[in-house]
Write a structure and sequence with these properties.
Strand content: under 5%
Oligomer: single chain
Order of helices and strands: EEHHHHHHHHHHH
Structural class: mainly alpha
Number of helices: 11
Helix content: 55-70%
Largest sheet: 2 strands, antiparallel
Strand order of the largest sheet: 1-2
Shape: elongated
Number of strands: 2
Length: 297
């Protein structure tokens, strides 16, 4: 017999709760936060991909008669000391900021995943050498390692991406190695060897396909950290020297006007905060969804 779809009271975890039909069931606060985080993330990504559709002014347009104007209908985020519209500059600046974040996560996750996979599956001397190098890198704080690399290579977009990626490689390698080691000793791997499967097939077909989910979750959460590190390097003057500044450079340029034009620093900082918070919420939800223990509980 099919269950009735009308609203009914049920006993759940020591309390009576109203059970609504699926179409009208209320969302809990955590689900609402995740949906809001997805909307914010997609909105900021949309600003980076289609800035010309969103920004009301050109980012390089200097309105000399409207210098340091407070936020208004004409200028939603106000104007800076050049008369540029802050909202337009923030929208266009999101391209470099997000590019640094996504590219560094992709680079760091790929290199770290390869190192961790080879080290964990092969073992022996290769594992010892790789892990000792990773241990040395992990003794250096990520921001200091990125700072040293960026200062040595100079202010360039790809140098900044490499610096941020290099700071995250040890964490990705450690996580991937642990997953590979935990999977390669399981019974279904032994069964695959017993029927004559090659090591290459076992690695790519059985081990790697079961080890990628923690790396995906870590990459999602690490995206926020990469944005923060990239903005920090730009704030210190090691970022991209371009006509259209990224969020970190905007913060650096506006810090001298904080007492007279607070909006120059505030809105780029809010953009960084909202994006980092949103991707962290999405990463936490993704971790719960991919964790078998969470699904069973």
């Amino acid at each position: 017999m099919k269950e009735a779809v009308s609203t009914r009271a049920v006993w759940h975890k020591g309390n009576w709760q109203l059970r609504f039909p699926k179409a009208t069931r209320k969302l809990n606060p955590s689900e609402i936060l995740v949906y809001l985080a997805v909307i914010v993330t997609l909105g900021i990504i949309g600003c980076a991909v289609f800035p010309q559709w969103i920004a009301p002014y050109a980012p390089t347009a200097m309105l000399t008669d409207q210098i340091l104007q407070a936020p208004s209908k004409a200028h939603l985020f106000g104007t800076d000391y050049f008369g540029r519209d802050i909202f337009s500059v923030v929208v266009y600046g999101s391209r470099d900021s997000l590019f640094i974040g996504f590219a560094s996560v992709l680079t760091g996750g790929l290199i770290g995943g390869i190192i961790g996979s080879v080290s964990g599956y092969v073992g022996g001397v290769i594992d010892t050498i790789c892990m000792r190098i990773i241990d040395v890198l992990m003794t250096i704080p990520g921001i200091l390692l990125a700072l040293a690399i960026a200062a040595a290579l100079g202010p360039h977009l790809f140098n900044l991406v490499f610096a941020v990626a290099a700071a995250s490689i040890p964490q990705y390698a450690r996580v991937m190695r642990g997953q590979i080691i935990s999977i390669k000793h399981r019974s279904f791997i032994t069964a695959s060897r017993s029927i004559g499967a090659s090591e290459v097939r076992i690695f790519f077909r059985h081990v790697l396909t079961n080890a990628w989910s923690p790396l995906l979750v870590m990459s999602t959460i690490g995206l926020g950290s990469s944005i923060l590190i990239g903005a920090g390097l730009s704030f210190l003057g090691l970022g991209v020297l371009k006509e259209i500044p990224d969020w970190g450079t905007l913060l650096s340029q506006g810090r001298g006007y904080l007492t007279v034009a607070w909006w120059i620093c505030t809105y780029p900082g809010l953009a960084i905060t909202l994006f980092v918070l949103s991707v962290n919420l999405i990463g936490d939800k993704l971790r719960d969804a991919l964790d078998p223990k969470q699904r069973k509980s």
